[in-house]
Amino acid sequence: MASLLRTASLARPSISRSIARPAPRIFTSTILQRNYASAERSFFPDEPEAPVVKTPIPGPKSTKVIERLSKVFDTRSLNMVAEYPKSIGNYIADPDGNVLLDVYAQIASIPVGYNNPSLLLAAQSPEMTSAIINRPALGNFPQHDWADILETGILKVAPKGLNQVFTGQSGSDANELAYKAAFMWKRQQERGGAGVDFSEQEISSAMNNNSPGAPGLSILSFRKAFHGRLFGSLSTTRSKPIHKLDIPAFDWPQAPFPACKYPLDQYAEENQAEEQRCLAETERLIKEWHNPPAAIIVEPIQSEGGDNHASPNFFRGLREITRKHNVLFIVDEVQTGVGATGKFWAHEHWGLQDPPDMVTFSKKAQTAGYYFGNNELKPNKPYRQFNTWMGDPARALLFRAIIEEIERHDLVRNTAVTGQYLYEGLENLAERYPKEIANLRGKGQGTFIAWDSPRRDEVLKLAKGHGINIGGSGEMAVRLRPMLIFQKHHADLLLEKLEKIFKS
Amino acid sequence: MASLLRTASLARPSISRSIARPAPRIFTSTILQRNYASAERSFFPDEPEAPVVKTPIPGPKSTKVIERLSKVFDTRSLNMVAEYPKSIGNYIADPDGNVLLDVYAQIASIPVGYNNPSLLLAAQSPEMTSAIINRPALGNFPQHDWADILETGILKVAPKGLNQVFTGQSGSDANELAYKAAFMWKRQQERGGAGVDFSEQEISSAMNNNSPGAPGLSILSFRKAFHGRLFGSLSTTRSKPIHKLDIPAFDWPQAPFPACKYPLDQYAEENQAEEQRCLAETERLIKEWHNPPAAIIVEPIQSEGGDNHASPNFFRGLREITRKHNVLFIVDEVQTGVGATGKFWAHEHWGLQDPPDMVTFSKKAQTAGYYFGNNELKPNKPYRQFNTWMGDPARALLFRAIIEEIERHDLVRNTAVTGQYLYEGLENLAERYPKEIANLRGKGQGTFIAWDSPRRDEVLKLAKGHGINIGGSGEMAVRLRPMLIFQKHHADLLLEKLEKIFKS
């Protein structure tokens, strides 16, 4: 298959156009391959056949939009102005008539395509409009059908072993809520169980932000991790200085994340040694750090930090160590969750016997929170884990519609299959353009693929001119984060455009 | 007016029914007063005439809902199950057919009534459905009309002197984003200006959560303050131990909040002395605290902490002190904002010459964030104040519709007028039931009214049986947080029911 692909990608002249018009029946392997991809049923029949680039980006209309917006909104991180009503499926439109294949998807947060018709139906339903205009304080006044919305939505896709959820509003929020649950669990154990009440000293010291009421406990995270940007989550984020500079932080420990060589299987032995080193250091920090960890948190694939992978063995090792030392194991699936890696949850790749204690989610779920199974993670009193909104039924309804769309089109399987196809295409490109694609990674991880590029920022910029919206991560990684509706014909198009960029 | 009211409230037999049916024209002051209230045009003509209480709450159907929900969701803080599609205006319905006058309004977060028809139109608009299904990463890919949505919505009601906004997702989030802006501003000054780059030492120490990169700075807050429950905001929250216990906190200072006597004007001299004491202690902490404050944050009326008021003089004093010591002044209007106090923003009552540096909002805005005016509060580089969603255009569109509804019906004025009417009715009740209503407060503050009750929790519970949904704050306060569409005839009904409770 790889060799066949290699032939195919050597001559990929106008594949995009062949999607709509039947290709002439010339029986070369190139064309056969092309037909294989183009013959698939598109999830979005009205998608454009190919990107349309009419102007430099930003074009004149976008420039006007940016000028006006700059007066009231920080536009220095602006990538491109979007016109969402004109966007469709995998394609993002701008005010100048440019329509780009979007493999960044709002920083990995659009799951099933722009203007997905099933989501549109859900958004127009009476349930949704009620949820928008009558937003409840869920902890106090939950709506009569909240159990039903949870059971047919968020909880339907709960990771194995975790049958409860606490809902929140963003990835940072989800992680901090999980940290709070971890601290309450740890202190309850230290106190002697759920039945033991707080001491007077705990009560008075908590009000002064002092120990023991505000305990000197910590969350252990990993170097280059990204877990959010609020004060607790930012204390566990170790991705880039720009994320952290000038913000006070907790004195919490960071363990080394394995610096693996890619492809992982080719360097299995070296990587195993590196992972063992990191596991040993993690264990040492759990035992010795002066603010003892109540939990460790890890991403299945470090995303913002540069798309860093480790083997299932490493993560199983973390589960063992945390179990051994009575520390909770939190898996941050904010970016990896909801199908992108070819499993619904990326940690399903690990073959854990014993599930994580908590799994956090956001982004493609379009709602956020943490799953848990152990009843001891429920605080012993009400109002300990609480806030006004405690999530959002409107976004929970949307996630339910997303889940139905994923099931209807078998999109997790699609992502696994398309991801493999894309990965093989990229392997081929990497062989031919070794200076452009280094450390290709994400094999067997759906479309969650990345590589290092010595001219990363230039490549991302050039891609726009070729009609591709693509993102980076870490210092030099190009990261692919297409939607779950990304198909082989989109992969062909992406590979073709990348080759053009590499040639330029 | 107060004496007239006193007469009126002595005999208030079936006012609720008189709203729809014209009252017989008997010319006593009692009836005149009643007619005055009942003759007003209702904002919700289809509202019930009065609460309907068919079963104890929870009734049999709600009990079933709670049993099912308890398996997947923490219901220990549940107050009542709501059926929102059947709720309307000021009335909240439950599955058992009970319909209660709601003066708690989802912890003060419903602005213009359940199932408000104008909001329904906004929720069904193509703009809204697009915003729901195509949620952007606003910092990278803002929609083409984002400036327009901001200018015709959130920014249209920006507090005087603050013409920019950073949007977020909840009150806690809004406050933490403001804290981050404050820390970056302070460190930039210490560093020598926006043009001075980070040092190597700052960069490396930030990645290790250590000073100077993660500086030993603080946010000063006040005793009994509530600013949220994430890690940074919780470090400034000092309301109740249950909010803080077992959660690690920053070593940040708390100043005393004036323990004023009510009514404020009656004890003006004593209160002034108390406020001066608190201002002096605030100034001392700013000068001496080992982690110097970059900002102080204060609520115009401490809400969760028990509805604690202070005079405009106190807040003007805070503005002076912060200006004097080059510390930012953040006003937390999460609960007080958007009309509830009879001004759009509660801090308008203070008559400040010099605006606050930042004003945070959420709840009734149905979206969240902080306003600011000074360009120096914009971090000197992109991606410093950033996250994936950075707010939510769907909720920004809803806030715009809320603002339009407020303007159309002059609801801030309504709240001021109704609030005065309600306050006078409560003054009258307090005279006649001095054991039930102590420390009545909120005069001239719209419907943002509270009092202390020695049997607070019992009163709140009894109120349900009389068809009123009402909340508490602090240890013993009954807090009224009706919506902006709360009118005099609702006030009459509330006063009548309260009297029945006090008699029971």
Automatic annotation (TrEMBL), chains A, B:
One of its GO terms (biological process) is gamma-aminobutyric acid catabolic process. GO terms for molecular function: 4-aminobutyrate:2-oxoglutarate transaminase activity; pyridoxal phosphate binding. Keywords: Aminotransferase, Pyridoxal phosphate, Transferase. It catalyses: 4-aminobutanoate + 2-oxoglutarate = succinate semialdehyde + L-glutamate. Pfam families: Aminotran_3. This is 4-aminobutyrate aminotransferase. It comes from the Eukaryota. Belongs to the class-III pyridoxal-phosphate-dependent aminotransferase family. GO terms for cellular component: mitochondrion. Gene3D superfamilies: Aspartate Aminotransferase, domain 1 (3.90.1150.10), Type I PLP-dependent aspartate aminotransferase-like (Major domain) (3.40.640.10). Its EC number is 2.6.1.19. InterPro entries: 4NH2But_aminotransferase_euk (IPR004631), Aminotrans_3 (IPR005814), Aminotrans_3_PPA_site (IPR049704), PyrdxlP-dep_Trfase (IPR015424), PyrdxlP-dep_Trfase_major (IPR015421), PyrdxlP-dep_Trfase_small (IPR015422). It is an enzyme of class 2 (transferase). Its cofactor is pyridoxal 5'-phosphate. The keyword Transcription does not apply.
